[in-house]
């Protein structure tokens, strides 16, 4: 099993963590209902689960729910800067969930903690970015025989897993929770939109109104960031490589142009693509003086930080979480949160209300895999549609909203080809 029961910063933070976890739970009625059901039904009895996730208050409530369903849960961090140390303390001290994560840990500690989570010999995996699954396949392949399935939380992870499946390297089925309608339509758009702006404002305290604000990528996360930036009064530019998304951005009223043009006039640039070097050397060479750059994609490769370092003659930290790079051309670039997820590194991540739906999908999908994973092929699957719809219905009920139902006549009409004009 586990050589050491936990590796966290400070157990004495547990009291503070418990208050915040319980606060988040008040905004998570769907997951609360699933927790209560899991207590009664124990759908995960005997399951060993290793999770590599952002260790936040909302994640703590997901872990509690899985444990209530009968699972043995172990957690590690999916990002070195997103861990909330008071949450790791409460997970260990009060909820007795082994946790391996320390905010600010270096790369060596990060992968050591993933290894400790894998020492649990998981039958099910929870991942956010696919680092745990990748490590399992590359360096701990002896454990693969016991793995029944896993779930993936974010766009970057789904992309990596689909590449593994395409190469026939994936050794167990994975459900792409990220692609559930009740996840990407809400978590990615409203959650990322609000929390990214929150992280930028906390870091800089710069008024957004009247500023030129560029968003790289017009996926669901990019849509949300652009929408919230415009709501603050910013003049928003979208950069894209996909012609359909670029066209949609233009139809939504945003300016669309290449990044090389946008960099010259932008006061803020935020990447949200899932790709690498979206902001590169050529952009830094022309970027506007004192431009603030940040990343809302999963990994810190979207901004080519080594290239920025080479172009710089001086670096200092004017504010917490802000690195000001003085370039050889005399301009200054302000990098937030070391290029890591700014909404988690500089703020608190998504509000609990949207994580309620994301983690409801996680909990129900994990239970589904525990029951049906052995019958699935080694591929990336969508969240079963009945789970996605169930989460939406539960969220509507929690919001005390009701909707219409189709009559039998309407159902027959929609399923028939015989009636027309």
TrEMBL record:
Residues 188-349 form the S-adenosyl-L-homocysteine hydrolase NAD binding domain. The keyword Cytoplasm applies. It is found in: Cytoplasm. Its cofactor is NAD(+). Pathway: Amino-acid biosynthesis; L-homocysteine biosynthesis; L-homocysteine from S-adenosyl-L-homocysteine: step 1/1. Keywords: Cytoplasm, Hydrolase, NAD, One-carbon metabolism. One of its GO terms (molecular function) is hydrolase activity. It is an enzyme of class 3 (hydrolase). Its EC number is 3.13.2.1. Binds 1 NAD(+) per subunit. Substrate binds at residues 56, 128, 153, 183, 187. The keyword Hydrolase applies. It holds the Pfam family AdoHcyase. Transmembrane segments: none annotated. It comes from the Bacteria. It catalyses: S-adenosyl-L-homocysteine + H2O = L-homocysteine + adenosine. NAD(+) binds at residues 154-156, 188, 217-222, 240, 296-298, 343. InterPro entries: Adenosylhomocyst_ase-like_sf, Adenosylhomocysteinase-like, Ado_hCys_hydrolase_NAD-bd, NAD(P)-bd_dom_sf, S-Ado-L-homoCys_hydrolase_CS. May play a key role in the regulation of the intracellular concentration of adenosylhomocysteine. Belongs to the adenosylhomocysteinase family. This is Adenosylhomocysteinase. It comes from Candidatus Methylobacter oryzae. The gene is ahcY.
């Amino acid at each position: 099993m586990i050589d050491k029961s936990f590796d966290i910063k400070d157990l004495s933070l547990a009291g503070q963590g418990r208050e915040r976890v319980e606060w988040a739970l008040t905004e998570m009625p769907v997951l609360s209902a699933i927790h209560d059901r899991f207590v009664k039904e124990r759908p995960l009895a005997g399951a060993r689960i290793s999770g590599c996730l952002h260790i936040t208050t909302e994640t703590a409530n997901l872990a509690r729910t899985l444990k209530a369903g009968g699972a043995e849960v172990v957690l590690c961090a999916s990002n070195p800067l997103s861990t909330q140390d008071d949450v790791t303390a409460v997970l260990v001290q009060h909820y007795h969930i082994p946790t391996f994560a320390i905010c600010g840990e270096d790369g060596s500690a990060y992968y050591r903690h993933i290894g400790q989570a894998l020492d649990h010999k998981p039958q099910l995996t929870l991942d956010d970015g696919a680092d745990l699954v990748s490590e399992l396949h590359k360096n701990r392949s002896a454990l693969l025989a016991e793995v029944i399935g896993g779930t993936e939380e974010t766009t970057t992870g789904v992309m990596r897993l689909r590449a593994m499946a395409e190469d026939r390297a994936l050794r167990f089925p994975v459900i792409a929770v990220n692609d559930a309608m009740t996840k990407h339509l809400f978590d990615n758009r409203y959650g990322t939109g609000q929390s990214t702006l929150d992280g930028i404002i906390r870091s800089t305290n710069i008024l957004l109104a009247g500023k030129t604000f560029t968003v790289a990528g017009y996926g669901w996360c990019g849509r949300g960031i652009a929408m919230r930036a415009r709501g603050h009064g910013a003049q928003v530019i979208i950069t894209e490589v996909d012609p359909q998304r670029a066209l949609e951005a233009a139809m939504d009223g945003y300016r669309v142009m290449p990044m090389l043009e946008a960099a010259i006039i932008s006061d803020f640039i935020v990447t949200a693509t899932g790709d690498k070097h979206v902001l590169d050397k050529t952009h830094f060479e022309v970027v506007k003086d004192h431009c603030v750059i940040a990343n809302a994609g999963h990994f810190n490769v979207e901004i080519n930080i080594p290239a920025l370092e080479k172009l710089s003659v001086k670096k200092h930290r004017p504010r917490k979480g802000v690195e000001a790079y003085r370039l050889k051309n005399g301009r200054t670039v302000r990098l937030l949160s070391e290029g890591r997820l700014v909404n988690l590194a500089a703020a608190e991540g998504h509000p609990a209300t949207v994580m309620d739906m994301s983690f409801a999908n996680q909990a129900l999908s994990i239970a589904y895999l525990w029951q049906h994973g052995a019958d699935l092929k080694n591929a990336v699957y969508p969240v079963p549609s009945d789970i996605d719809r169930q989460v939406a219905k539960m969220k509507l009920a929690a919001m005390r909203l009701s909707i219409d139902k189709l009559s039998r006549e309407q159902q027959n009409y929609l399923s028939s080809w015989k009636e027309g004009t």
